[in-house]
Amino acid sequence: MEGTTATDSTNGLQGRTGQKQPFYRSLWVQVLIAVTLAIVVGYLWPTTAVRLKPLGDAFIQLISMIISLVIFCTVVTGIAGMGNLRKVGRVGGKALLYFEVVTTIALLFALLVGNLVDTGSGMNADPATLDTSAVATYTGRAEAQSVQDFLLNIIPDTVVDAFAKGNILSVVLVSILFGFALSSAGKRGEPLVAVIDGLTQVVFGIIRILMYLAPIGAFGAMAFTIGRYGLSSLGPLAKLIITFWLTCAAFVLIVLGTIARLAGFSILRFLKYFKEEIVLVLSLSSSEPVLPMLMTKLERLGCSKGLVGLVMPTGYTFNTDGSCLYMVMAALFVAQATDTPLSLAQQLTIVAVATLTSKGASGVQGASFIALVGTLMVIPTIPVAGMALILGIDRFMSMFRAAVNVIGNGVATLVIARWEKELDRETLQKNLAEALQQT
Predict the structure, then answer these.
(1) What is the pTM of this model?
(2) Contact 96, 316 (CB under 8 A)
(3) Which domain holds residue 400?
(4) Per-residue pLDDT tens for 52-72?
């Protein structure tokens, strides 16, 4: 049942019928066209473009409202279908171990690039002269979310509260407990499993409908970005932006590419398979809207529903490779731009603190920026006021950090599936090749 459900859901979500559809009907092509038009509108009519922001916000909210149900249905039916609760704990443990290792590599990778490329040299910014009013808002929010608060906030006040607030980890916790109980119920729980499995089909039907609006959402989000900040805003900080973009690309191709090769698949074919999701994330600067699409397409490659349901949502909090790259590079940029020398010990302290703050601000709007402010507050040598330098370009950097987060979690899921021997190398390569033929 799981294999059929995954394939049907994916085919329905993508609008495929088994035959290769015209290129103009592909979601990624439509989104690219919408983004191109948005850049033109944002450049020529910036005032009008700024007013289009609700289009992007509305689409993200439409997808976000259904994500909790997607996670619940997938995790519950997946765990109930596993029939082996030890496997659930084993998968969770392996996932957390993988997340910590790879995010640490991401932090060190960014530290290396940040020292090799001095992106802030020559700015000689005086923190006392910077307008810190906007940064002050983020400072307050960073102080309000400690690591202890983050851990306690995983536990919702009520079961309904987990879904009402949309906290992904809270939903995962409730779903795991519900799945455990349902699995323990044996045959008595089978009717309820069937109901939840039917609900899964309905939920993905809703997503299929909402995805028709993706080009409109991408158009509104990109038009606002260009209209609000303008292409000219990239000029003074172009070195930082381009360096960050290239660093993200290098991390994906070198680090994740090596991991993918060891797991038995090509990172380039992986990127081609998930091109629709990547293009959508780049245009929306948000990774949440593509979570349902990622989950169904990973199931189609042969990952079990339970494993995907555990690894992907958890990875959205604990495996933020793009955010880790951003936090270290941005911290070093602020130090360089304000002529603040940092010793190796201080730089390693930034890495150590970032391993916690990158997770502590998860689930909050502007999470990466808030986490970065929280990191700098722990390192008093670097003036937090220097964050005002990059606040205006954060939107352009968030595109790539969100994309790297998505790619990293997709790779992680396949790696854990291979680690669990759910997939062998030949089957994964065959499934990936067959999936690409249909795109």
Answers:
(1) 0.78
(2) no
(3) 2-83+97-437
(4) 888 888 887 887 788 788 878
